Amino acid sequence: MRTFLDANPYEIITIFIEDNVKAPSGVSKVLQASGLHKYMFPIARLPKNGEDWPIVDDMIQNNQRFIAFTSKESKEASEGIPYTWKYVVENQ
């Protein structure tokens, strides 16, 4: 994914992690080691209380083109990885 983002500066990747990692900061360590961390969209910029999502152009201009969500609610506080169901809805 890092190679793709390096080669495609106008693309954005979003992933949903089914998080079964038990190691402390395990997912964060993998993202850091992979080089994806430099592209991470900061959790502080995610919408709150029904706010709008950021504009794609802003994400591209700020080079914040990678969003990873976790299935473990506790990882939001411990690793700074957003909990999926706090920010995403799913319809049937």
Automatic annotation (TrEMBL):
<dbReference type="Pfam" id="PF26178">
    <property type="entry name" value="PI-PLC_cat"/>
</dbReference>
<dbReference type="InterPro" id="IPR051057">
    <property type="entry name" value="PI-PLC_domain"/>
</dbReference>
<dbReference type="GO" id="GO:0006629">
    <property type="term" value="P:lipid metabolic process"/>
</dbReference>
<dbReference type="GO" id="GO:0008081">
    <property type="term" value="F:phosphoric diester hydrolase activity"/>
</dbReference>
<protein>
    <submittedName>
        <fullName>PI-PLC X domain-containing protein</fullName>
    </submittedName>
</protein>
<dbReference type="InterPro" id="IPR017946">
    <property type="entry name" value="PLC-like_Pdiesterase_TIM-brl"/>
</dbReference>
